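pinging the channel bc i need a second pair of eyes. not urgent but kinda urgent?? the chain im working w is below, pasted from the shared doc
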Amino acid sequence: MATKTPHEWSSAALLMKAERYADRMLEQSRDDWQFGFWSVLCLEMILRAAVSHTSQTLLAETKDWNNLLFALEIKGSAGELNPKSIASSEVISRATALYPAFTREHANFCTLHIKRRNSELHSGSLPFDGLDTSVWLSQFYAACSALLSSQGSSLKSIFGEEEATTADTLIKALQDEAAKSVNGTISAYKTIWRGFSPADQAKLSKLAEERSTRADGHLVNCPSCGSIALVQGNPAGTESSTFENDLIILRRPMLPSHFECKACGLKIVGHSKLSACGLGGTYTSKSTVDPVDYFEDGFHERFHSMDEDNNEP
C-alpha cells in the first residue's frame, strides 16, 4: 500500500525540511556567513511546523478562502491554485499565542533573525558577514528548543545528538544568572590595569601578544585590558574534512570553556561565564594534514593538534 505524501503545510513536512536546512547549516564553518543564513531558513520551518502542529489551517492566508481549502486538503472550484501562507511575522505572533514556552524573548529573537534573512535576500547588505555566534546562537537554540518541545519533537531530532548536546550547553549558559557575576570580576581587573603606567601596559600587552599563538587557542581581545588573549575550548560538533592544495584540511567547531589574558592576568573558566561576557561564541579549529599521514592506520590516535589554527577567518 502506497504511503501518503505529507501535505506541504503539515508539521511533518515542515520538520523534514527544517532537518534538511539544519544539515546544510552544520556543514558550514561556524565563522562562515552561510552558517547563520541556513540557520534562519531552518528556524522558519520550525516556526511554521509549530503553528501547523495545532492545525495546518492556521498557516493559510485568509484573504482568499481557497487557501483554507488547500490547507484542509479540499479541492476548490477555483481550479489551479497557487496557495499562499501567512507571513513570517504572523507565524511568530501565532506561535507566541499558541505556546507559552515560546516566550516574548524567543519571539523577539526570531523577528530579528528573520530580518537578517530578508536583508540578505532583498538588499545589498551582508548581515551574516562577521556575525559572531556569541550574538545569536544561544538564542537560536533556545527558541528552536521551545518550539520543538511544544510539538513533541526535540533539538536532537533536527540537529543530531552531538549538536543537540552543544545546544543544551549554550541554552543553560543563557539562563545562568550567576554567571553574570563575571562582569564584576572584569571590572575589578580593569581598575587594576588602569593603575599601571602606559609604558608598563604596553610592555605587558606586547608580551601577551607574543605568548598567545593561533595554535594555542582562539585569539580575542581581553574584556579587561584590551590585550590579545586566548580562549580555549572543547569539540562542539562533527569534524569535517576537505582536500585543498594537495593537503587534507580538518575543521571542527569548538565551544569555549577557558579564557586567559597573559597581560592583566584575568582568567575566566566555564562556558556560562564566557557567554555572559561575550566570549562564548563557538569558533573553528583548523588543522592541515598530509594525506599520507591521514590515511595511515592509527592516525587519529597519534594526531595531536598538528599545524592547528584556532582562528580561521
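so The beta strands are 218-221, 228-235, 240-244, 247-260, 267-269, 283-289, 308-309. and The CA atoms of residues 260 and 267 lie 4 Å apart. — does that match what u expected or am i reading it wrong
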